[in-house]
Every structure is written in C-alpha cells, then in structure tokens.
Design brief:
The protein has about 90 residues and is mostly helical. The protein contains 6 helices and no strands.
C-alpha cells in the first residue's frame, strides 16, 4: 500500500497526522522513515501477529466486532497448518 493508499486508509482509522507523515516520507523515498511513522497502535489493531494466545484473543475481538473475513498470510515453515489453526478459532 503506497502513496495514495496510505493517505486514504490511515485517516479512516483516526490517524490523520500519522497518514500525512507516512505519506510525506514515502513519497520522498524515505521508506524506513515512513515505516517508523506508522503508529504501533494501528498495527496492533489490524494485524494478527504474536504468540498463539494473543492471536486467538485478537481473532475473537474481530469476530465480536462483526468481522466475517480475515486475510491471513501465514509466516512459518507450515503455512497451511497455521491457516487451519486460525480457521479453527472462528
């Protein structure tokens, strides 16, 4: 998600100032600075990464909020197994 996408999506999560900073850095070619400007709180709200118990709790929060579809990109030696594990929590 680059440039325009950052500007359009971050404000919808309530991060107008962060969106401006990320976009400014990214468009200037300072990708590391853009990455650093993404609020950790936002990443925590939208990503499922960490120990199994934490991820399971986050899946439950998404489910309670009405989320009906997760886009899962497993990272590890057995990606199909990870997807099945997450599916079992739904």
């Amino acid at each position: 998600m680059g440039g325009r996408g950052l500007r359009l999506r971050l404000p919808s999560y309530g991060y107008e100032a962060a969106a401006a900073a990320v976009q400014e850095h990214y468009l200037a070619g300072r990708k590391k600075d853009a990455e650093a400007a993404v609020p950790a709180e936002l990443l925590e709200q939208i990503c499922l990464a960490g120990p199994e118990g934490y991820v399971r709790d986050r899946v439950e929060v998404f489910r309670e909020a009405g989320v009906t579809m997760l886009n899962v990109t497993p990272v590890g030696p057995e990606p199909a197994r990870l997807v099945e594990r997450v599916r079992s929590w739904l």
